[in-house]
Amino acid sequence: MTAGGVTQRLRGLKVRREPDSGWREFVTPEGVDLRLKVGAYVERFSAMALDFLILFGGMGVFSLAVLAVLWATRAAWLLEALGVVWLLVTFVGRNFYFFLFEAQPRAATPGKRIMGLRVVAADGGRLTADAVFARNAMREVEVFLPLAFFLARGEGVDAALITLGAIWSGVFVLFPLFNRDRRRLGDLAAGTLVVKAPKKVLQPDLADTERTASQGLAFTPAQLDAYGVKELHVLEDVIRAGDRRAMKEVAERIRTKIAWDGASDIPDRTFLNAYYAALRGRLESRMLFGHRRKDKFDVS
Amino acid sequence: MAELHLKSWRFRAEREADWRRLESLLTKAEAGGVGKLKREELLELPVLYRQALSSLSVARSISLDQSLVAYLESLCTRSYFFVYGARARLPERLARFFRRDWPAAVQALWRETLASLAITVVATVVAFVLVRGDPDWFYSFVDPGLASGRDPMATTASLRATLYQETTAMEGLSGLAAFLFTHNAQIALFAFALGFAFCLPTAALLVLNGGMLGAFLALFFSRNLGVEATGWLMIHGATELFAIVLAGAAGFSIGWAVAFPGARSRVDAAAEAGRRAATAMAGVVVMLFVAGLIEGFGRQLIQLDAARYTIAAVTLAGWLVYFYWPRRPAP
């Protein structure tokens, strides 16, 4: 997360490489670590593709509208004014689309919002307008320069030069692949990061025994010691997803594992809910006494 | 029933209303800016934010409900960026930019500006001397598309005509202005972004630009139109060339910081230089807009050499005073 970590990596001081989960420490002034996740390549690429789709789609529609107006009126005096408007709008679109959205409180373009991403200052401070401007002005060499080389055609020496140029500009394009925080050139020049910041809704508590039908089922401590936190979380995911077949399979596995000898005609969902609530209660109370059982292999 | 509930359930039940309140305030604020919030809501927000943060710490240590922890993390992150984010409104931000930030950024780039200026001047002089010596050099410096007939093959009369185009109507003026502005601004942004590659491509762009200038001047001087051409060029060139020199300087400052970060880490140096240069660049776009206006309107409407020189001198002096007039440091 911190710039220091990045530099350390860039300097090659850290020899051993662990697989990177993408989680970064992000401590607020109140001393709480918000644990941000750096945006994945797929998400960032999709966000960019969406943005360019919106941008160029919008420009295309706008150009068509201008042409339609020209065609309909056939007024010579309009040509001039519309030409000016078209030039200015495309210029502002190309250079300020990203800036205008990222300089707002949400710090994300529509594409980034859809992918649940936002821009943050890498040092945890406030994201300033000049940083947003810098990171987006760099798109000039990251997108448009390679594009120009890619679209250029030439023969002989020209072809060789274009190839060299394409390779050279390819370095800018592929830059995010070679650093831990997946920063592109613009992020580096502005000191920013792109992180996951999805909007989550508060889901109902599965251990809410009044609302979920699970009363009447009791488990012995031995049966509850079969699993740890990791399995509890998997169980939570399975119940929340609500897929019948998955629940049936999981319920079967648990019944076998804990040697369930109670009533056998309980619906899978009820059984899983009851077991989840009981297991969570057991693990949480042990956690209060200082023991967090990582997973089912954690026997201490 | 309460005794049957988990501690984490009770923890959640007691605080849930506050979290939802914070969430609704945030949604409101994010949709319409701070202006949408009432006074008491604005005061409430930081308090709710700190509550949510403490809830997050507690939830992490007592609750194994991962959806709850994920929700609180997302809520705290959103409110963190709101509470600590920049909230100056656009008019204030713009006022600050023009009154302080822009001149300060330009002042901080004085060394790079001098380097950029030197490169441009040297390229101009070299191109000038070469083209005066052998007019064929002209074609090496100037793209035929941009020359549009102003080349050594043209007659003196036609060259003179390009300097004093008689335009009867306003036609063509605003279109030209818009085109010149977008074209130049795009090039300037490009020069800035290229600076990241250790300054060299930016320097090359400046050399090309200066070379073109020198070649044009040489052509007109060879036909005894030097004074007139300089006036024609400088009426907007004072602003435009200054802007391009500044764009080059902004690019240099980034490239220099990346190549020679000094005591700071390369990443920190790049970020610091990038932000400062970006402020200057935003200003360059403004300058080029002004230059485009002068070029599109002023140059065609004002045909007197003396008036052209006066405007050039006044704009140049204006920019210099605006940028370099000593100011009190920011509070």
UniProtKB/TrEMBL annotation, chain A:
Keywords: Membrane, Transmembrane, Transmembrane helix
Membrane topology, record value: Multi-pass membrane protein
Subcellular location: Membrane
Transmembrane segments: 52-71, 78-100, 159-178
Keyword Transmembrane helix recorded: yes
Domain of life where this protein originates: Bacteria
UniProt name for this protein: RDD family protein
Source organism per UniProt: Phenylobacterium kunshanense
Taxonomic path: Bacteria, Pseudomonadati, Pseudomonadota, Alphaproteobacteria, Caulobacterales
TrEMBL record, chain B:
Record keyword tRNA processing present: no
Transmembrane spans: 109-131, 187-208, 215-235, 241-261, 273-294, 306-325
Keyword entries, A-Z: Membrane, Transmembrane, Transmembrane helix
Coiled coil feature spans: none
InterPro entries, per database record: SpoIIM-like (IPR002798)
Domain of life of the organism encoding this protein: Bacteria
Alphabetical list of PANTHER family matching this protein: SLR1478 PROTEIN
Protein name: Stage II sporulation protein M
Highest classification ranks of the organism: Bacteria, Pseudomonadati, Pseudomonadota, Alphaproteobacteria, Caulobacterales
